[in-house]
Amino acid sequence: MAMTMKLNIVSAEKEIFSNLAEMVIVPGVQGDLGILPQHSQLLSTLKAGEVIITEQGGSQESIFISGGLLEVQPHVVTILSDTALRASDLDETAAKEAKERAEEALKDQESGIDFAKAEATLAEAIAQLKLIEKIRKKRSGH
Q1: Closest C-alpha among 133, 140, 130 to residue 27
Q2: Residue 109 pLDDT > 90, yes or no?
Q3: CATH classification of 5-87, choosing from 3.30.300.20, 3.30.565.10, 4.10.1110.10, 2.60.15.10?
Q4: Which CATH class is domain 90-140?
């Protein structure tokens, strides 16, 4: 039996995932990070993207996060994110609409918008759409 660690993924609204995992891959700001049981202690910021979980027994699950913080202890990994959704719960239409709104806001130089917030919204929408596309390709066998 493979070694495991406790993995907790928590959003601002609720706990999304709390179970044993053999491995987790997270979207670090400077690149993806792979975490195995007994990893050295670590704190890191995360960007919007896919968290890939290899659960005890080998099955995989994907969870979208909007960015956040990663804390690694020898036997417990915690991910805190404003938004965390199981990949199956992503809404492609809503993500496309959010992307279009953010792009329009960034084009309008005189709107007085918060450009950092619009750019973050755009990055989150693009990350969601990439994960939706990845899932679609897996299902179709490509």
Answers
A1: 130
A2: no
A3: 2.60.15.10
A4: mainly alpha
